[in-house]
Amino acid sequence: MKDLPPTVFVVDDDDAVRDSLKMLLKAAGIAALGSSSAQEFLSVYDPAQPGCLLLDVRMPGMSGLEMQHELNVRGAMIPVIFITGHGDIPMAVEAMQHGAFDFLQKPFGDQDLLDRVQKALARDADTRSRMRHTDRIRERLSSLSPREREVLTLVTQGKANKMVAGDLGVSQRTVEIHRAHVMQKMEANSLAELVRMMMSIAQ
Amino acid sequence: MSTPSSDVLALLEVTFDAVVIMDGRGRILAFNRSAEEMFGYRAHDAVGRNVAMLMTAMDRASHDEHVKRYLEGGEPRILGKGRDVRVRHRDGSEFSVFLSVGRIPNTEPAQFVGYLHDTTLRRKALATLEAERQLNRLYLDLAQVMLVATNRSGVVQLVNQRAIRVLGRAEDEILDHPWVDRCVSPQDRPLARAVYRALLVSGTDDPHSCEYHVHSAVGEDRFITWRCVALRDGDGMATGMLLSGEDITDQRRAESEAHKALERMNSVSRLATMGEMAAGISHELNQPLAAIANYAQACVRLLRRPSADLPEISDALEQISGQALRAGEIIRRIRSLARNEDVRRERQDINELIREVHNLLASDARVHDGRLALDLAESLPRVTIDGVQIQQVLMNLVHNAFEAQSVGNSPPHDGIPFEVRIATRLTAQGDVEISVSDLGPGLPGDAEQKIFEPFFTTKATGTGLGLAISRSIIKAHDARLAYRANEPRGACFFFVLPAHLEASR
């Protein structure tokens, strides 16, 4: 999964615009794929594929805004850059309000486009790495026994072993053993790291 | 002999029927004013004489018999019941009356009162009234409008044939029923009630106008334009209403058909207004330009690489030339629209063209709560123009004018309804000036210089091409589209078309 190269998906009904964008991106060393309609893109879109979306606001059939809405409904995290024409500013504003990453007004310079695409790809990579991180933490968390979960909860609330032992009605020695298992299973080197892990998945 | 009391006499004087009071022997004791009029005798001549003088020979003998029999305890033949009898006027003529006789209580010797009702007169009056009613009915039924009269509570008192036909019901299904509940379409009832309430309390004799649907029992609801007046009694109190209605369903449908046709034109060709056309053109032009820029930038990047991918670059350059041609084609289309290629010019009556525009834009005006007024000079010389293009210019100007007035103003503005006026006039040089004026804010000084420049716009959604294209169309007609401030306020766009010279035909 990690090895899939980030790809820019160009969704535009105008063949020339779509094709020229793909060529420009490839010339800048960025993988690009084109779809001529929102429906076409949605039918082939794989959420595991890292990348970003270059989306024309105005399209026959499903418009860019409608497609953004559909992606939001599906919980897709892919950053969306809208391409708008003259007089489409109200649409661009609406798109931004619904979580678009950025927008570009036609006509635009290549550096403008590439800068934004790079930023969007970086955001996507960041989101994905954070998601991978939290996924790993959740995985480790699920390997804990119920008693270990209890110890983890109390320890990350800042309670000393003695208090945890009192709360759970076990000996301090038992708590120390559970606690060592928790640190080992969670791959945490310190209490501080354990707390950070718990906070990152609580978000 | 006792005479009736003065109270009774006073009462008798105001009684409409003829009243004669007599004693048991038929002697007249009192003779009221109606009796004087009926028989031609003065009361002082009649009192003291025998009632027999009022009777025909045939009744005279029997009358005495009747009285005598009654006084002897016999069966009263006439008392309290009444019958038709023939009587005699002082001039000898005979006529029919309805006579009822009663004994006045507590009189000894007995006194009798006779009420005489002139049935001849009544019959004649009834016949006249009936004839008049039928004539009125005929008038009502001949009328091509719906006529309905109601009382104060809105219950139908009269309805003519035309109304009956439109409503598709029998007359007795309408008469004596509440007008609004029975005949007005449910969604329009509150409106109708409000109008009628206002009319009844208004105290004016001016007709109120309103438009609403009536329910037809035989088909779809009909849309009626009404004029309503209050009916008043002598004291000016409203006693009811008279409604006269014209069925404008078909007219409205025709108007809305025209509106739909306009919308079809809009969506199919985007040509109905310059603004939409321009928006479409600028979007279309942007596409090839964006593609050209992208391809060119890609080429630059590819060429910068140590080993340039020549086939790819050549492909991109071919795309660039293709897209440049595509852009050129779009521009050629604009030019053909503006420069009058492939179009026919004909001698035309400009006023007629304007009336067509008026029909097409009547609904546009309604959307803006405004009015499109025409002020057309008669017998103008014909002009040689492309009618469709000139109409497009006019539609664009009118559309702009309505928009200019609605911006920031909620109607009615200062009590003045939005009005756009298309006017024609003959100039001193014998040419034809066409102007479109509004009562909006007009143009600020700096805008006046720029409005005809392409892409200059004061509208949030404007493209800034409408006026520029309009001006180039007018220029192609050897004229100039210009602006002046309108009197007393607002903007005025005008152009002068050279008159067609009959000699140059």
Concise overview:
The complex is a heterodimer of chains A (about 200) and B (about 500). With about 200 residues, chain A is α/β, with parallel strands linked by helices. Chain A is built from nine helices and five strands; from the N terminus they run βαβαβαβαβααααα.
Uncertain regions of chain B: pLDDT < 50 for 5+ in a row? 266-272
What fraction of residues of chain B sit in β-strands?
15-25%
- Strand order in space, largest sheet of chain A: 2-1-3-4-5
Category from helices, strands and their pairing of chain A: alpha/beta
Return the CATH class of the largest domain in chain A.
Alpha Beta
- Most extensive interface: A-B, 20 and 27 residues
CATH topological fold name of the largest domain in chain B: Heat Shock Protein 90
* Mean pLDDT level of chain B: 80
Number of helices of chain B: 15
Report strand order across the widest sheet of chain B. 2-1-5-4-3
The helix fraction of chain A, in percent, is 55-70%
Please write the CATH class name of the largest domain in chain B.
Answer: Alpha Beta
Structure explained in plain terms:
Chain A is of the alpha/beta class and 203 residues long. In chain A, 58% of the residues lie in helices and 12% in strands. Chain A has 9 helices and 5 strands; from the N terminus they run βαβαβαβαβααααα. Chain A has helices at 15-27, 38-44, 64-74, 89-97, 110-142, 146-156, 161-168, 172-185, 191-202; strands at residues 7-11, 31-35, 51-56, 80-84, 102-105. The longest helix of chain A has 33 residues, at 110-142. The model of chain A has no long low-confidence stretch (mean pLDDT 88). Chain B is α+β, with helices and mostly antiparallel strands and 505 residues long. Chain B has a 5-stranded antiparallel β-sheet with strand order 2-1-5-4-3. In chain B, strands 7-6-10-9-8 form a 5-stranded antiparallel β-sheet, with helices on both faces. Chain B has a 5-stranded mixed β-sheet with strand order 12-14-15-17-16, covered by helices on one side. Chain B folds into 4 domains: 6-119, PAS domain (Beta-Lactamase, 2-Layer Sandwich), CATH 3.30.450; 143-247, PAS domain (Beta-Lactamase); 266-338, Helix Hairpins (Orthogonal Bundle), CATH 1.10.287; 346-504, Histidine kinase-like ATPase, C-terminal domain (Heat Shock Protein 90), CATH 3.30.565.10. Residues 266-272 of chain B have low confidence and may be disordered. The relative contact order of chain B is 0.05. Chain B has 15 helices and 17 strands. Chain B is rod-shaped, with a radius of gyration of 43 Å. The interface between A and B is medium-sized, with 20 and 27 residues.
